[in-house]
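A favour between colleagues. Tell me how you read the following sequence-structure pair.

===
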Amino acid sequence: MIPAYPLQWPAGWPRTPVSAQRYSNFGSKKGSSTRVTDITVAEATQRVLAVLGRMGIDRQDVVISTNLALRLDGLPRSGQAAPRDAGAAVYWQTKKGERRVMAIDQYYRVEENLAAIAATLDAMRAIERHGGAQILDRAFTGFTALPAPALRRTWREVMTFGESTPTRDQLRRRYRELASVRHPDRAGGSDAARSELNVALAEAEREIDHGKGD
């Protein structure tokens, strides 16, 4: 089972360099108003589910994975601070049992990346509507989801804290130090290393915050 939180970026998929990320033009209209407002996490999530629903994918066969904490129904919750890694990955399983994934991280906000996934899926679905079912199937073959790694390092291992529990300040300092070394633009760095570090930070902050509430 692929976790919806924190973000599980698909293995082998390249990440967008921070310098290449940007804001999107995705928005939404409220009622009869002609004014376009920024899209919300909830609206972007519903766009993804709606497109997949039109493709015949059941809600129970969809996992929307981001660095946003979850609602009780397992979907990303609105009203949170924007995570450092705003990437989004959507995993689903077809009626034939085929596992697929699409992931986008070229925009600054999670909701923008989710809206981009929805728009991309809808555009690809148009191929089928115009009689290109076989072409569509071949296209989606490129988005086959690899199984999540059976074993992955804990946040303590990734951030080299051993058994000690750092303060938030110590955690942030260590993150900055490691981020500069593991950045894909640096020698020895990579997209995978940066993604692992971002996931580790999210897990560490969640554990520290939970500990404070005990």
User: Anything to note?
Assistant: The helical segments are 41-54, 110-129, 133-141, 155-158, 168-182, 191-213.
